[in-house]
Amino acid sequence: MVYKGMASKNPIKISVLVLFSMALPVNAELKVTPRVSMSQLYSDNLFNRSDTQQIESDNVNQLVAALALNSRSMLLDTNLSYQYTKLKYQTFHQLDQDFSNYLASTTFKLIDDQLLIKLSTQKGRFASTLTSGNSGDDILSGAAQTDITNYKINSNFNSRLGRFLDYNFNLTADKIKADQVTNAEQSLLDDTDAYSTQLTLSNGRFFKHSYWRLSARQTESERRGQGFSSLTKQKLNNYRANLGFGLTSTTSLYLQYAKEDYDVIGGGAPHLNYASYGSGIRWQPSSKTDIKLAYNWALDDNNEDHISAELAWHPSRRTSFEISTKKRFFGDAYSFSFNHRKKRIVTKVAYTEQIISYRLSSLDESPTDNLICPTLEPFTLDQCEFTSDPSPTLGAGQQLIPQQELTPDLQNNTYLDKRYTASISYQKRKLLTHFNFISSTQTNLQTDQERDQLFVGLRFNYLLSQRDSIEFSSSISQFQLEDEEQLLPRFDDTRLSLSYQRSLSPEIGVQLQLTELDRDFESNQQYKEQRIMLSLSMRF
User: Fold this and answer.
1) Which residues, 6 or more positions from 17, have their beta carbon under 8 angstroms from its beta carbon?
2) Which residue in 13, 70, 286, 429 is a FRET match for 514, CA 20 to 30 A apart?
């Protein structure tokens, strides 16, 4: 097994450094944070084998060198996060490897911040499939892995025409490059070029007793490469219009129009569309409550008339509740969200239905349950904020408390994803607890095959002293494919972890971690693995 080194990727690494250096203004405040960690890890079942006669153990030396650069000024915000990882195996030298992950971005702030242009590039190494047998969370076993490199430009212009018109234009262009890590493996994800344009026009302050809004969005992605599917081009169009007239101080009559198209060129998937117009009543009894109810007539014989409804309730800055029902090109669509923050507890519950794929997800930043909190102890949860960016830019005195998400699926397929999520964070004195729940049912739009995913995670962190802390985490993950005739075998992954951290100084820390991985599967792929890791980290 021969791993590709980073020597062939020098142009990519150089482009990251050039992007950062070109964007660094002379008078900007530059923050540099280097970090180095060295770890000794032992695994008693490195290759995740179920047959006891084939189980192999090994010791792995891991070196991680990371560098974070942040620069802020009136015209530019620039960020670079670079991490180099080297793995050296005591017995299985053929698995020795080194690789780099990075994220670099530059945001130009022009015309009094009305025009924002963001250039970014990112590279990461992921498990290629959800069933590869290495729990999808690391690269130690040498199982199917893929390097994903992403280049992206996002331009957003937001302005107004006097008191009559507010308008917004957004353009996003994205390029994904997928490379198999070993010569013997084929990446399931093709290289992709994608773009999205959106124009939104809405009423200005001149309109006191009426309101209107027009929006149009077009998304297109085109695959290049030797994938396992004949699908080559994908288009999504979305057009919407709303017009409202005030009847009383709290009630208005509104008209609406919606049209959506989903088309695949070269893949044999059905062309899906929906168009309708409708009228309804909007009631706003206060600035905190907004209720809409409308009847909609379908504009083609393939779809039916329907009733749409929306309720938005924001009783305070810390609490929100929203629920809606409508029709889209894939059928009935429902959504629900509830958010509540108090001093010691943060709760977020949601249900969503949306079209997802690895390619489309790069164009939209899907909401996550990550928290940005102060670094100074002690802090309370009402000082934290949710972030929709999986890799947000942190300011001075901030830390990211990540929440577990479903493992990304590196395939060319597009799914209708129906997902329930719930997260609860609780803090009291020295104890910080996180609970995550995700249940997802995904339908392949090309084959109609369904798959179910479930994740339940619980994490406790307790401060023993100003320098010492312990953390216990547990999670259960399930993955199952279905077809019209039978349920296919289900993967059940359980992960338990116990760790102890000690700060030797503000810059130096040590960690001892015990981990157990357990996969239950209705074939010979079930396994158990236990790991012990001792690491030393230094910040400069």
Assistant:
1) none
2) 429
Report the 10 Å Cβ neighbour count for 264. Answer: 19
| Ramachandran region, residue 287 (left: φ > 0; alpha: ψ -120 to 50; beta: rest) | alpha
pLDDT in tens, 314-348: 999 889 999 999 998 888 899 999 999 888 888 99
Q: Name the pTM for this structure.
A: 0.80
The dihedral of CA 441, 444, 445, 449: what is its sign?
negative
What is the pLDDT confidence band of residue 16, given thresholds at 50, 70 and 90? low
**Are 222 and 232 in contact, with CB atoms under 8 Å apart?**
yes
CA 378 to chain centroid: 29
Give the closest residue to 431 by CA, choosing from 452, 461, 455. 461
pLDDT in tens, 433-474: 989 999 999 888 877 888 888 999 998 989 898 889 999 999
- CB of 292 within 8 A of CB of 471? no
377-394: burial string, b at 16+ Cβ within 10 Å, e else: eeeebeebebbeeebbbe
Residue 257 near residue 241 (C-beta atoms within 8 A): yes
Predicted pLDDT of residue 6: 38
**What is the C-alpha to C-alpha distance for residues 401 and 253, in angstroms, rounded to an integer?**
44
* b (16+ CB within 10 A) / e for 154-189: bbebeeeeeeeebebebebebbbbbbbbeeeeebbb
The DSSP bridge pattern shows strands 115-127 and 145-161 to be antiparallel
Strands, E assignment, 468-526: 468-482, 487-503, 508-520
For 23-35, write each residue's pLDDT tens digit: 555 556 788 888 8
Round to whole Å and give the CA distance between 256 and 20.
45
